[in-house]
Amino acid sequence: MRRLTVAIDGPAAAGKSTAARGLALRLGYTYLDTGGLYRALAYLYLTRENLDGPVDHAVLAEVLHGFEARPLSSGGFSVGGHNLGDELRTPEVGSAASKLAVIREVRDALTAQARKLAEGGGVVMEGRDAGTVILPDADLKFFLTASLEERSRRRFEELRERGERVTFEEVMAAEKARDERDSNRSLAPLRPAPDAVVLDTTGLTPEQVLEAIWREAARRFDIAETGPRSE
Ligand code: DC
């Protein structure tokens, strides 16, 4: 069986990561987190300059120069010899990633890297424009959504578990701002590809989301569980 290319897009905390990781695991495919590429770049930028004001294009050019992120099996990225993991998952880095993601040079460079990582198929790619721009010919495309309240609650619980001191209202405001920026930018805005299967994950457990995705994949393609089982 040919190794497929799967794209899973959607707003923050819609359940993409758990579904994409789970699907990749079941199929024995590679999981590619394109948001992690944007976060790795933003992290490097933030080590040089804050992003409270406008982007400093000289700093951005230096950070982008020779930027190459190699996915780690642990889920993070290796950049310039440094392994970046949990430090990429903070709200500050997420917000900075979203701000840099509106810039053409950034999108061009990271789109090219993401495409290269997907060469040869056998990948489940997660992001905002995986199915529309990075891999428009993907075999299977999903667009996951959920209500803003539910997505904010999921992110709030995740941050609290990690010991971050945030209020639900702060998390909701940050998610809303990020989604608006990601959806309203002129380059590769967040939206479902015309051939994407749209799935509202509000009220569904991560297991139910993965099952729904698996069922759709199995309905369309002759797939079998080849990877290690997730449980
Ligand atoms: O999925 P995430 O929360 O890790 O993504 C962080 C930011 O990166 C997101 O707010 C927008 C940007 N991004 C993007 O513009 N295109 C992608 N394919 C993936 C992420």
Topology:
Blueprint: E1 5-9, H1 16-27, E2 30-33, H2 34-48, H3 57-64, E3 69-71, E4 77-79, E5 82-84, H4 91-100, H5 104-117, E6 123-127, H6 130-134, E7 140-145, H7 148-161, H8 168-184, E8 197-200, H9 206-220
Helix pairs in contact: 1-9, 2-3, 2-4, 4-8, 7-8
Bound molecules: 2'-deoxycytidine-5'-monophosphate (DC).
2'-deoxycytidine-5'-monophosphate is lined by residues 12, 34-35, 38-39, 94, 97-98, 101, 127-130, 178, 182.
Q: Which percent band covers the strand fraction?
A: 5-15%
The shape, in one word, is globular
What's the pLDDT, averaged over the residues? 94
Biggest sheet: strand arrangement? 2-6-1-7-8
Task: Give the uncertain stretches in residue-range form.
Answer: none
- How many discrete domains? 1
Distance between the termini: 24 Å
CATH architecture type: 3-Layer(aba) Sandwich
Number of strands: 8
Distinct small molecules bound, one entry per kind: 2'-deoxycytidine-5'-monophosphate
Query: What name does CATH use for the topology?
Result: Rossmann fold
Main sheet characteristics = 5 strands, parallel
Number of helices: 9
Helix-strand pattern, N to C?
Answer: EHEHHEEEHHEHEHHEH
DSSP helix fraction:
40-55%
Q: Just give the CATH class.
A: Alpha Beta
- The CATH homologous superfamily name equals P-loop containing nucleotide triphosphate hydrolases
Radius of gyration: 17 Å
Structural class: alpha/beta
